[in-house]
Design a protein that fits this description.
Blueprint lengths: L8 H19 L2 E2 L2 E5 L5 H12 L8 H8 L5 H15 L7 H12 L5 H7 L15 H18 L3 H7 L2 H8 L11 H10 L10 H12 L7 H13 L5 H5 L2 H5 L8 E13 L20 H21 L5 H11 L5 H6 L1 H5 L1 H4 L8 E5 L2 E9 L4 E5 H9 L4 E7 L2 E5 L2 H12 L9 E8 L2
Parallel strand pairs: 3-8, 5-7
Antiparallel strand pairs: 1-2, 3-9, 4-5, 6-9, 7-8
């Protein structure tokens, strides 16, 4: 039972914001930003959403919000409010996103119908769960929320049954002939289940973490029964008083392994691209190399600091890598036929840059849900990190399975760099800078 969270006054206040939204939007059928505006008196908002957002799908690598603004061009007040309410529901539970960013999103959706005081008042001070790299699937998450809303408004059936029966890919394909990714493990599905039934579901949006919890107690997991199994674990083994996420997947559980409990995890964000001071695609080469002899003395300390940061992150992530998925994905992507050699050396492959290529455009290889993830580790003693042009290009080409972590003062920081990578890459290909410079520097805000 995850309702243990709601015994805390702050968490209860956060959840009550959803109950207010549920009453206004789902039950009264009006906009949370204008309670006089009826949204569901006919099918207009459903027809407009499907025409603008799904049928008129934009598969470019531009930021989703930029595309949404274009797709909402010339939309009327009712349609803009409907879309803004969906975006509110998507953004509301995200813990690692500033309210200023959430509010700006709603402002862009409402355009001339924006009322700053109402929008600010609608959001709680905090969120419920950290989304991390899951935030880059915003388009699919919002579509999932849309189809749930459409079905729930029409039928008023058990909301959790509706949530768990949605086949997003099939629903989108009925509307558009565009090529869509099949997204099975979405944060919005997990979060909606929790919001509509916090007595049974967990405030966990990461499928990998749910698998890990079940695997910890039962040795194996079944994707079809993850939530049922976790509830059973709570009822029969773990109890209802504490966070099972915190025990198995959270900061304390993960980071105490690495260095006697001295490692902490926080979040950071890009403050600005300070300065921008096209290579070939990357190929995986499993021939071990060492570059000690050709590293200049004045760069050696910086390299060593970076290696220490990589080792720190490696010691943490290696416990959570699904090696079977990693081996299969690497062999497919890079057409590696020596399957047995890959399997024997998989621990070294996880810390790829250390063992195989110091100049690779990423440092570690991990897994998330059923996909491979490239991890770039940046270390700093100040508030600046640096990317090479090759790293920017690789990040852009692998946006859906690429993440950055920063290590500073024995603290690991998660950072959402998705949109920034897109913006910087555009500058690169449009030749807006003098490319005699080799690096791009980013100023970072670290949250305490």
């Amino acid at each position: 039972m995850s309702r243990y969270m709601l015994s805390d006054a702050v968490n209860l206040e956060v959840y009550n914001k959803f109950l207010e939204f549920k009453k206004v939007f789902f039950e009264d059928g009006v906009s949370i930003f204008n309670k006089n505006l009826k949204l569901f008196d006919n099918d207009e908002v459903f027809q407009e959403y499907e025409e603008r957002i799904i049928k008129n799908y934009d598969d470019s690598k531009r930021p989703s919000l930029v595309k949404y603004i274009e797709q909402l061009s010339a939309a009327n007040e009712k349609v803009r409010h409907f879309f803004a309410n969906l975006m509110w529901l998507y953004n509301y539970p995200i813990y690692d996103k500033k309210n200023e960013t959430k509010i700006k999103t709603i402002k862009n959706c409402l355009d001339i119908y924006y009322d700053e005081s109402i929008v600010k008042e609608s959001f709680p001070e905090y969120g419920i769960a950290s989304y991390g790299r899951l935030s880059q699937y915003l388009y699919f998450d919002v579509n999932f929320i849309y189809f749930f809303t459409k079905e729930y408004i029409r039928q008023k059936n058990n909301p959790n049954e509706i949530i768990n029966n949605i086949n997003l890919y099939q629903l989108m394909k009925k509307i558009s002939a565009q090529h869509f990714k099949e997204m099975t493990y979405l944060a919005s599905k997990h979060m909606l289940n929790y919001l509509f039934n916090p007595d049974y579901f967990e405030p966990i949006v990461n499928t990998s973490c749910k698998r890990k919890i079940v695997e910890t107690y039962y040795d194996a997991y079944n994707d079809q029964s993850l939530d049922d199994d976790i509830f059973k674990i709570r009822k029969e083994i773990f109890g209802f008083e504490n966070s099972i996420y915190g025990e198995i997947c959270g900061t304390h559980a993960i980071y105490k392994r690495a260095n006697g409990g001295q490692i902490t995890k926080k979040t950071a964000q890009i403050a600005e691209v300070e300065s921008i001071e096209l290579t070939t695609d990357f190929d995986l080469d499993l021939n071990q190399k060492t570059y000690e002899d050709d590293i200049l003395a004045d760069a050696k300390k910086k390299i060593e600091n970076g290696m220490q940061a990589e080792d720190l992150v490696y010691e943490i992530i290696k416990h959570d890598v699904d090696k079977k998925i990693l081996i299969n994905k690497i062999s497919q992507i890079y057409k590696i036929k020596a399957f047995d050699v890959l399997a024997e050396n998989i621990e070294k492959v996880i810390h790829y840059s250390k063992n195989y290529d110091r100049y690779a455009p990423f440092d570690l290889i991990s897994t998330h849900n059923d996909d491979i993830v490239y991890i770039e580790v940046k270390s700093t003693t100040g508030n600046t990190i640096y990317f090479s042009k090759a790293e920017i290009k690789f990040a852009y080409n692998h946006l859906d399975n690429y993440e950055v972590v920063i290590v500073k003062d024995n603290t690991i920081y998660d950072i959402d760099i998705y949109d920034t990578i897109i913006d910087v890459y555009r500058i690169m290909i449009n030749h807006e800078v003098n490319w005699s410079y080799e690096t791009i520097s980013f100023k970072i805000d670290f949250f305490k």
